[in-house]
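User: Teach me something about this protein's shape.
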Amino acid sequence: MQNEEQRGEQYARISELGDYRVSEEDPDPRGWSVVGRDGTAIGRVEDLIVDTDAMKVRYLDVAVTGAAAAGGSRARIPASRVDLEPQQRTVITDLSQAELSAFIGTERSAADTRTYAQGTSTSAADMRTDASDAERITRAEEELRVGTRQVQAGEVVVGKHVETERVTTPVQRRVEHVRIERRPVNDATGSAELREGEIRVPVMEEEVIVEKRPVVKEEIVVSREVATETEQVEADVRRERVDISGDEELVDRDSTARRQRAGGGNRG
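Assistant: First, the predicted structure itself:
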């Protein structure tokens, strides 16, 4: 009994689980019509009852209408007892009217939903055995989902430093030289006086002045650009294979109609 109680606590409405949603690979039957195998209208799917540990839809919460509502306004139909028709937005259940009445009740709170799911899980399986001899086995496989995230691949450092270089530049400058000429005097008049004397002549030249000042010659612009590369990612994925053994001549291999089953809840 303790295990059953613990298992019952796993169930909750998907509408009450903010971080749960129906897998994109499976149809979401909420809002779809529910009919029996004979086409009898039963109601409309209002919510999904999810096994939060297995992340699977276990029950369809159906608002019952018409004659089927005689026993109550709500029904919890096991997901294993329905087929989905996405084109018609219809859920088809193989429950008989007598079986369906066992799943019909009044509106329940979230806490009662878990208790209800706990109490009916075993009886639903028993009814399935009585109603049909069809058995089901699921096949699963791993799907590879590859994404990307941004990480630092390295860094580039752009800096500058000062170095000294000796340069040679030609420059023109003017220099004065003293030219001395001796010229004879032929028409000298008067008397000459002998005495010492000198003439001072300043000699000028241009001096080279070296002046240095920093001048901007160029600028270095550092930016980043994004390029897209294609990389092949390899990983091992597992898948289940269906093995058929025994009296294979008894197997009808032409009966390969695919039915989309009620999908499992996927944590978003």
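Now, about its shape. Helices lie at 2-8, 97-101, 110-131. The longest strand covers residues 41-51. If you'd like, I can walk through any region in more detail.
User: That's plenty for now, thanks!
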